[in-house]
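User: Predict structure, ligand L-homoserine.
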Amino acid sequence: MLGYGTVGAAVDRLLVENADDIERATGHRLRVVRALVRDPARSRTFAPADGVLTTDFAAVRDDPRVALVAEVMGGIEPAASHVLELLGAGTPVVTANKQLVARRGSELFAAAAAAGVQLRFEASVCGAIPVIKALRESLVATNVHRVLGIVNGTTNFILTEMEGGASYADALAEAQRLGLAEADPTDDVSGADAAAKMAILATIAFGSRVTLADVDFEGIDDLPAGLPEAARGLELVVRLVGSATLLDGRVDVRVRPALVDRHHPLAAVEGAFNGVMLQGDAIREITLEGPGAGGMETASAVVADLVSIIGTSGTGFLNGDPCWRELERLPPGALPSPFYVHLEVDDRPGVLAEVAQRLSEHGVSVARLTQVPAGEGASIHVVLHEAPQRDVEAALAEIARLPSVYAEPSLLPVISDRGVVELGWA
Ligand code: NAP
Ligand code: HSE
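Assistant: Predicted complex:
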């Protein structure tokens, strides 16, 4: 292994505790013979066998007993160089590292294909949930055209806690205490962790490379104040949602805080759990839900990949790059969605008419509107019918300049596959 931390130690534990099951399934007994770490003296949650830990990568690379390697060290370098070197030398690799796969995927898959070995990465997306296997194997003959996902456990935990009245800072501290967050939680709360996972899911679903740089993302570190309460009033819940859409042969991948209809399957994904909805021609809709983080949970995906490699090595199965075509990006703002808008306005005659006028000039239609008193003025919550984001943004830019509007409007997508008509709002 490269790394023997939260996930690495759990992989060793699973291999030891389930050695008989794995041997029954594969005919092989898997043992961790070498693990690269920074500090062999550190205490571990599962004790490795004597002589396993090393600080020397060459000791892993050159050990003749090493048939497979699990990269569970994280970061881009030296992880990328080590994985490339191992693949080049004909050693199959399993990785849990989403940033590595999302940023350097093309190089890594090319190296694996050139050497005729497998690079597996189930654990890099949604911890224990076998979503990569579902997309690459179970749905190989299905044209998946949309993936919607809650793919970051930390932010989902924070948002669920905030729904219950906790402050953002307290909820984040608790997520860190529970070991859900990355070592530096910036990637979690900024949406970068979810963006890397959505890049990987989109790449596999559509067979066209999507890198982290292609994903437009926003996190939960700057949510409008009072959003959870406003959402509750509209029978919606706040979630950080990734969406990957294939529309007219073009791809759009984004991560945004969104308001999810409380009857939608993703609204039921609570706490540190993840949920992914796959939509395709033959399957209509499949939703997978489960733990998206945690040592043992993630280790279960790493071990499953190791076992699968043993079962398929030499067959050519999953050796190639998952990308087989190059699709264009959908222009920014072209993706249609229902949207929620929040405005702070003067409470006097004609204000609502001015707002409605600007929306209608851009072809944007109101589905639902509520107004509540707020200080000297009023707070307006609007749910719009589906419209391209650029049209809604153009209308909002004009609305923001109206003298009667005294705070920057906020805009969030609404996730409801039933549409606003079926919600009874039209
Ligand atoms: P971790 O607890 O910090 O463990 C990292 C391990 O890698 C440690 O053993 C560390 O050595 C070793 N390491 C790191 N940098 C090294 C370097 N430059 N040279 C040698 N050894 C190095 O991290 P983790 O939580 O197990 O996460 C590992 C990977 O799994 C990451 O890519 C993460 O994103 C991914 N992942 C984690 C979870 C989760 O819930 N934890 C879920 C899904 C995916 P020392 O022990 O000596 O410090
Ligand atoms: N920090 C990540 C999360 C861990 O909260 O989802 C799993 O990738």
